[in-house]
Write a structure and sequence with these properties.
Elements (H helix, E strand, L loop, with lengths): L3 E4 L2 E4 L5 E6 L11 E5 L5 E7 L4 E9 L2 E4 L8 E7 L5 E6 L3 E7 L2 E5 L11 E6 L4 E7 L5 E11 L2 E8 L11 E6 L5 E7 L6 E7 L2 E6 L6 E6 L5 E6 L6 E7 L2 E4 L10 E5 L5 E6 L9 E7 L2 E4 H5 L8 E6 L7 E6 L4 E9 L3 E6 L4 E2 L4 E8 L9 E6 L2 E7 L5 E6 L5 E9 L8 E2 L3 E6 L8
Parallel strand pairs: 32-39
Antiparallel strand pairs: 1-2, 3-30, 4-5, 5-6, 6-7, 8-9, 9-10, 10-11, 12-13, 13-14, 14-15, 16-17, 17-18, 18-19, 20-21, 21-22, 22-23, 24-25, 25-26, 26-27, 28-29, 29-30, 31-33, 33-36, 34-35, 34-37, 37-38, 37-39
């Protein structure tokens, strides 16, 4: 098939991306089904929930790594918990069910209730959908009229404690008449996005809240739209109806303009869910062929180019499985995918493996036997920051030493024990974080006699 789509006069094409490494999230002990992972952070820590067989309830889970799940503390014994987001300092928010849904923030493992923006005279209902790195949490809560209203909670540190401020963000229509919901917040906490009813209550538009004001982000020919993610540059992503009945298109909104993103076919599943500071976007697209069992494929958009993640990652997932959606892309380039089969859904951390290069130099060549000699390895990754991790120095098959890179990506190793002759020195950088392995070229190090002369 032709993998190009013309969208509003723009031609987009599929393009291969950097290599990626997939790591399966392990479920806690006592779980009947695979755990559901809802969000990750820059370091690859994650949160979500799992159904516990013994108690028949969903329990919140915190993963410090994909292989290390820990159950979150419950709000009350027997309470269902549904964590939805984790930030880059390990804060988690979501909701719990105890006589009504209640927004919850886990502060160093301790659950704290998030009150509604407006008193409703009874068991309040609130939920937290996202949180920033600086004490801002967003979601929705019910007021006295039973309508949901977009809500922001802000935690401020004070002497000997903290204070929590709750704010009603409002809706696009008349005050108190319409529903609204906050679904995403920028890392700084200054920008909030979601959806809000219009005046007639029958249509919802993607909405941006900033500096006490609301902006209707509009639609692309249809009636409804929703925003899920925003970065600190003010780029917003989500999905919108189009003029084609039953079809949606993912969008990025920036500088006051809603721009459609590429898809492979019209359908209701197309949507962008998350954007990072580099403008990388992840979400889902309708599957390219209607014959597929899965209705959607995970998708990435970068520099205006669409990549079908099921095609890109297909060789790394179990046979018969499909990468159905992607979300929660971080500034480190990591993101979360759901992989579905006919029997279950599993979740994987996707880590980019950025290419690296190692340059190896020596302090002297040739060098005299017994003199101190220093080898310097510099590891770089063009356009992807400064690599971290370690370098191993070897002489043929023998390992000389292993050294941690400094903040400039440099490792040095000194020795005075090389024997006479020529040595093949190589510096090996091991896979670490988002950086792939690489070796330097062989450095032929000569060690020679020191000639000593004296009077005749």
């Amino acid at each position: 098939m032709d993998n190009r789509r013309h969208i509003f006069g723009i031609v987009w094409s599929l393009q291969a991306h950097a290599q990626y490494r997939l790591t399966l999230f392990k479920a806690p002990a006592g779980v009947r089904d695979p755990a559901v992972v809802t969000s990750i952070n820059n370091a690859g820590e994650a949160t979500g929930y799992a159904f516990m067989v013994k108690t028949s309830i969903d329990r919140g889970v915190d993963w410090t790594s994909p292989s290390n799940p820990t159950l979150l503390k419950q709000m009350a014994p027997g309470a269902f918990t549904n964590p939805r987001a984790i930030n880059n300092v390990g804060g988690i928010c979501g909701d719990a069910y105890t006589e009504g849904f209640r927004g919850i923030y886990w502060d160093n493992g301790t659950p704290i209730e998030l009150p509604p923006a407006l008193s409703n005279g009874g068991p309040f209902v609130s939920q937290c959908t996202d949180l920033s790195d600086h004490g801002v949490m967003v979601g929705s809560s019910t007021g006295s009229n039973g309508r949901f209203i977009a809500t922001k909670w802000t935690r401020y540190a004070i002497v000997n404690g903290q204070v929590l401020i709750t704010a009603n963000l409002g809706a696009l229509g008349p005050p108190g008449a319409n529903d609204s919901e906050a679904l995403g917040v920028s890392p700084s906490g200054l920008l909030v996005v979601g959806e809000s009813d219009l005046d007639d209550l029958s249509h919802e538009h993607a909405t941006l809240w900033s500096n006490g004001s609301m902006t209707d982000l509009g639609v692309l020919g249809g009636q409804n739209s929703v925003a899920f993610g925003v970065n600190d540059l003010g780029q917003v992503v989500g999905c919108t109806d189009t003029t084609t009945p039953g079809a949606r298109v993912p969008f990025v909104w920036q500088n006051g303009v809603m721009i459609p993103l590429a898809v492979t076919m019209d359908g209701a599943g197309n949507c962008a869910r998350s954007i990072n500071s580099a403008g990388q976007i992840v979400g889902r697209i309708d599957a390219p062929t209607q014959q597929e069992a899965s209705l959607t494929h995970g998708a990435m958009w970068q520099n205006g180019v669409l990549t079908d993640l099921d095609t890109l990652l297909h060789q790394q997932v179990p046979a018969g499985s499909v990468v159905t959606t992607a979300r929660s892309i971080t500034d480190s380039g990591r993101f979360l995918v759901s992989v579905d089969s006919t029997s279950s859904s599993t979740f994987y951390l996707v880590t980019p493996v950025n290419p690296t290069q190692v340059q190896l130099t020596t302090s002297a060549n040739p060098a005299f036997a017994g003199d101190k000699l220093t080898f310097t390895a510099t590891v770089t990754s063009t356009g992807h920051g400064i690599p971290t991790g370690s370098v191993s120095f070897s002489d043929g098959s023998a390992t000389l030493g292993k050294v941690t890179l400094n903040t400039a990506g440099v490792a040095t190793f000194s020795t005075a024990s090389l024997s006479l002759g020529t040595h093949s020195i190589v510096a090996h950088y091991a896979v670490h974080d988002v950086y792939g392995a690489s070796d330097s070229s062989q450095l032929q190090q000569r060690i020679i006699f020191r000639m000593i002369t004296g009077p005749r």
